[in-house]
Amino acid sequence: MTDTNSLIGTELKTFPGGYIGQSVWQVRYNDAADAAICIFQCEEACDLTGAMAYCKALAGTSPFYKFELFAVDDTAYMALTGSALATTAGFQCAVGDVSVNFTSAYTCTKGQVLCLKLSYASGTIDGSNYVDVLYASGTNKFNMFPAAAYWTGSSWYGSTDYYPSMVVHTDLAAGVDFGGLYNIDAGNYASVMDSGDRYALRMEIPASEDLEFHIDGFRYTGKAENNGGNPFVAGIWPESGAALATVTIDSHQQNYQMGQNYTRDYYFTQSATVLSGSVYYLGFESLGGSNNVNISYMQPNGAAGLKSWPGGDSFYASGYDDSSSTWTDDKTKRLMLNPILSSVHGAGGGGSTISGPSIGLIG
To answer: Which domains can be identified in the chain, with CATH numbers?
Structure first.
């Protein structure tokens, strides 16, 4: 189908913007008063079934903790109101994902504002028996909502530079989590890449969407290289075969900027046609020998963590080894990369009933 360019410059959101994840923030639960919250808006009407956070460290014997769900008082800063709408039984933490179901699910309405709270429940808690739990990622400049904060016994401490990382499980068939973005840390891939190697965001729009995208490039946030050297390519590749579209980037031209944690739009020399139901990779390829690149990623820690990210596990990181011509997928990582579109169409054929661009691209 012809590219109309009617949506030129439109981004398909795979992350919330800013440069989230270059640091993570945690609460040390070594006092009964310690707590952390995530205030969020419900994206759909559904049952909220449980919650998840990441335990970074454990000392001694873990006390018992609980997740609770509250309404929010809109007349005060970070103020919860009423009794808990849902709660978990007390649980102990181990280092890693901490995922616990509510004793009874809570049915939310679309657009409702709620607060997830993680706090002490029972057991010995002191300087020798405690856990460190992540509650936010940074830095996400001037982020007002969703909001993250922690409590030390007298007041809530939050920041508009943070993005919450605690999430709420739902019963939605698409497997979506509400709240923050589950992120346990940031990192960089391959300080040196050999010629022909790639690191990219794997993208597979579900076949049931029956859509055709025209992709002009992508918006990327994070590091791309350590210092100027050989040129490299920004491109889009199918699962096998030659690139659909690329652009060669002068390494020296962006040496300083993309050696830092900044954002850039990359535009290919031509548009690429992408169909739902097929696998594509958007990212970077090294040219020349031993390019000194340093490509950033976030760590949602696997398929369960990806449920809180836009598009879920339709998007995750993958590396390509030119010597073996193989992609190695990694659902524990996610690039901060948004495809830039110029048009979206119903793919047609196969009994498609879609006649034009669709709202809710990933359903």
So the answer is: 10-17+187-346 (2.60.120), 23-181 (2.60.120)
